[in-house]
Design a protein that fits this description.
The chain is an alpha/beta fold. The chain has 14 helices and 7 strands.
């Protein structure tokens, strides 16, 4: 598959990082777009890139091959939750900048067999790390109705129909594929409701967050940031839904070792959204280690 990867808010990221010369920790290197921009546009930069998706890492390694050969980039399979341990193993006490892009990559969305997209029929998978055991199939088919209601309500932020959706899922088991799940959701959600966005968006988001334990992992990682980031260093986080953004906002606000550089999140300009519609929900927050 020919994947076209357009990194989100890349110019804004470079602008915040342009004066930093040193080691950049890209916690979610994905397909390597932000890392490539840093390495290309910021002098004397070195990138340590982490990701738990083997396919994304293989793609990024090819994209950043010349920088890897020059010794300016090192890509490793690891969750960002384990970033402090990885840095310690590399003999790095602190880094000069940290970048996180919490979005689902183009490759993950475009490949039907990954099960992330409600627009493509594939198995209910949704694992970022395909070596883990829990899948979307397990959540949809084996979690009880109350557990489903809770994640749809909390992670999907579906306040009105969470219980009804959970009940329909349980009644229509087994649900084997993303297409079948969308068909169940179409029955559960009234036609007149939530048509501004696709009716399956919130439920797919909720299941993906549950499968990958995304919110708890983000909290665990942020707690480690002050110890990993040198004074004067910066952290930039791009989130794509309000739950993540709220966690980042609160941490930046309450952490005494960080100074917020973005009181309000930076969002893409209209020109970027026209070129890359998936960027429309992106929010960037940046803080500096004091």
């Amino acid at each position: 598959m020919n994947v076209v990867h357009v990194p989100v808010l890349v110019n804004e990221i470079v602008e915040f990082f342009k004066h930093i010369h040193g080691v950049f920790l890209d916690c979610t290197v994905g397909l390597g777009g932000h890392a490539e921009a840093v390495l290309t546009r910021i002098d004397n930069s070195v990138v340590i890139g982490l990701d738990i998706d083997d396919e994304a890492l293989d793609f990024a390694k090819k994209r950043l091959e010349r920088f890897i050969e020059e010794g300016r980039a090192k890509l490793l399979k690891s969750s960002y939750v384990d970033a402090a341990r990885v840095l310690k193993e590399l003999g790095i006490s602190q880094v000069d900048a940290i970048l996180m892009d919490l979005g689902v990559s183009s490759m993950q969305l475009e490949k039907a067999e990954r099960g992330f997209s409600f627009n493509r029929d594939g198995p209910l998978d949704m694992r970022m790390d395909r070596q883990q055991t829990l899948t979307a199939y397990d959540v949809v088919n084996f979690w009880d109705e109350e557990a489903l209601r809770k994640i749809i309500f909390e992670y999907g932020e579906e306040k009105r129909y969470a219980r009804r959706i959970a009940r329909f899922i349980v009644r229509n088991r087994p649900v084997e594929t993303t297409k079948q799940l969308v068909e169940v959701l179409a029955k559960a959600i009234p036609d007149k409701y939530a048509r501004k966005r696709h009716f399956a968006t919130r439920v797919f988001q909720a299941i993906r967050i549950a499968v990958n334990n995304e919110l708890e992992n983000l909290k665990k990682f942020l707690a480690q940031v002050p110890g990993m980031l040198r004074p004067g260093g910066r952290i930039a986080v791009i989130s794509f839904h309000s739950l993540e953004d709220r966690i980042v906002k609160e941490f930046f606000r309450t952490c005494s070792e960080l100074k917020q550089l973005t009181k309000k999140p930076i969002t893409p300009e209209e020109a970027e959204i026209r070129l890359n519609p998936r960027a429309r929900s992106a929010k960037l927050r940046v803080a500096e280690r004091v």
